[in-house]
Amino acid sequence: MGETEKRIETHRIRCLSKLKMFLLAITCAYVSKTLSGSYMNSMLTQIERQFNIPTSLVGFINGSFEIGNLLLIIFVSYFGNKLHRPIMIGVGCVVMGLGCFLQSLPHFLMNRYEYESTVSVSGNLSSNSFLCMENGTEILRPTHDPSECTKEVKSLMWVYVLVGNIIRGMGETPIMPLGISYIEDFAKSENSPLYIGFIETGAIIGPLIGLLLASFCTGVYVDVGSVNTDELTISPTDTRWVGAWWFGYLICAGVNVLTAIPFFFLPKTLPKEGLEDNADVIKNNKEEKQRDEVKKQKGGITKDFLPFMKSLSCNPIYMLFILISVLQFNAFVNMFSFMPKYMEQQYGKSSSEAIFLIGVYNLPPICIGYIVGGLIMKKFKITVKQAAHIACWLSLFEYILYFSTFFMTCDNSSVAGITTSYEGIPKDLYVGNNILASCNMDCNCPTKTWDPVCGDNGLSYMSACLAGCETSVGTGINMVFQNCSCIQTSGNSSVVLGLCDKGHDCSMMLQYFLILSGISSFIYSLAAIPGYMVLLRCIKSEEKSLGVGVHTFCTRVFAGIPAPIYFGVLVDSTCLHWGNLKCGKPGACRIYDSTNFSYIYLGLPAALRGLSFLPAFLVLILLRKRQLPGENASSGTELVQTKVTEKENEGKDLHQNSKFSNDNELKTKL
C-alpha cells in the first residue's frame, strides 16, 4: 500500500509540475506578445513622424497586426486543438520575433532623419538668414524635382513596418486560443479562473515593460550615435522629435524567440488536474478516448467544423457576447492606441512622458484587478450567472465614472496666426489661418515651415522669423532670439525654441485625468475575469477552442482592423497645421485642435460602450432561463471527483466507509 501511495504521489507531482510549467510558459508568452503590442502602439506617433505620413495611414499600419491574425485564427483555433498545442504556440512566438525584427529594418535602410526647420545647424547659411530681414529672400523654398520628393518621402519604407506587423499578427495567432483551451482542458474547473487570471496578469506585465521600454526609446534621438545631439534645435516635447523607435523592436524580437523555447519540451496532453490519483483507470480510459479521437480524425479531421460553427452561431449568449466584445474593443482600441498622442496634444507632454505616465497610472491597477477578480471567482465559487451580473454592473459603474474625464481638458496652445491673433485674442478656427501680420509682413518668412518658438508674452509663434526676431544668441536647443517686433512688451523682447507651456491649471487637469483613468482601469479589469468566464462556460467543452478563436476573429475583423483607421481619419480632421516637406507635399500633423480632438477621443468610445450595454442586459435576461454547458461540465467533474474520493476511503473501517457512501449518494441525488 505504501508503494502505491508513493507512486500516486510521484505521478501527481509530475503531472502538476507539467501543468504549472505550461502555465509559466504561457504567461511568459503573454508577456512577450503584449510587450511587442504595447510597444507598437506606443511607437505610432514616432512612425508617423519618421515617415511623414497621416494618422489614418498609421492607423492602417497598426491594424495590419489584426489582418495577419485573422488570416489564421479560425484554422489555428480548430486544427490546433487536434495537433500539438505547445509546439504550435512555440512556433508562433518565433514568427512574432521575426516580425519584430522586420519592423526595425527601415532604420538601417534609410538616410538620417531630417526635420523641417528654419534654423540652420550645418553652418552653410549665415547666422541671420532664417530671421526677419527686410527685403530679404525667402529661404527653404519648395523644390519641384520629383526625384528629390520621392527620396524625401521614402514612400515604400513604411511598408517594412506594415509587413512586419502582419507577420507578428500571424505569429500571435495560436497563443491565446490554444493556451486558454489547454488550461481549460487540464485544470480543475474551480482553478481555471485563477490560472487565467495569472495569464491575464502576464498580459499586463508585458505592456508595463513595453511602455517603460517605449518611454526610454522615445527619449533617445532616432539617430543617436550618428549625429551630434548638441546641435539639435528640437527637444522631446517637440512634435518633430522622433525617438529611437527601432531599438525597442530589436529587443522585442529577442524576447519573443527566447519565450518560444519551453513550449518545444511540453507534452501534447496532460491528465485532468485533481484526477491524477485515480492512477491507472483514468489513464487507460483517457488513452482509449485519445485513440478513438485519432481514428475519427484520420477519417476526416474537418467533419466537425461545420457542426461546431452551426452550434456556436445558434448559441444566443455566445453571439451576444461577441457583439458586446466588438463594441467594447472598438472603444478601447481607439483609446489605448491614441492615448499618447492625446496626452501630447491635450496636456503638452512629450511622447516619453506620456507613455511613462500611462504605464505607471493604468497598468498596475489593471494587474491587481485581474488577480483580485480571479481570486474572488475561486474563493466564493462564483457561478456563471453570478459572474455575468458582476461583470455587467461593475462595467456600468465604471462607464458612469468615465464621463468625468470630459471636464478634465485644457485649452488649445496659443499659437499666433493659428489659434490666436498676434494680439493674443483667441480666433475662430477652421476659417483660415492669417499667418502674416503687420509686424512680420516685410520679413519674407516661410509660412508653412513649423519651427515653433515661445515668446516672453506667453504666446507661441510658428517660427522666430514670424515672431519678427532679428538676432540670435547661442546654439542648438539653447538658442535665444531677440529684438522680436511681434512681441508687444516693454524692454528687450525675445523668444526661445519650442511651444509655450500650458500652465499649472493644465498640469492639474492631467493629474485628475490620470488618477481617474487608474481607478477606471481597476474597476473594469475587476470585471474582466468574470466576463471572460461567461464566454468560456457558455459553450461546450469540445467547441471551446473554436469558440475562443471565432470570438477573437470577430473582434479582429470588426474592431481591431477598422477602429484605428476610421479613428485616425477623425483625428486628422482636427489638424490645424500640417508639416511641410521640402518638395512641398504635406507631412505629419504638427498641431491639432485639442478641443475637438478631446470630443472625438472621449466621445466616440463613450458612444460605443453605451451601445454595448444593450446586448449585455439581454444576456442577463437569457441566463435566467438557460442552463449553460459549462455548468454541466462542472457538475460532471465534481461527480468524478466524488467517486475518486470514495475509492480513497476504501481502506477505512466499514462503518465509517458506509457512512461516507450514504452521504455521497445523498449529495449525488441532490
UniProtKB/TrEMBL annotation:
GO terms for cellular component: basolateral plasma membrane. It is found in: Cell membrane. Residues 632-670 are annotated as: Disordered. The chain crosses the membrane at residues 21-40, 60-80, 87-105, 157-183, 195-222, 242-266, 317-339, 354-376, 388-408, 512-536, 557-579, 599-623. Keywords: Cell membrane, Disulfide bond, Glycoprotein, Ion transport, Membrane, Transmembrane, Transmembrane helix, Transport. The keyword Acetylation does not apply. It is a multi-pass membrane protein. Belongs to the organo anion transporter (TC 2.A.60) family. This is Solute carrier organic anion transporter family member.
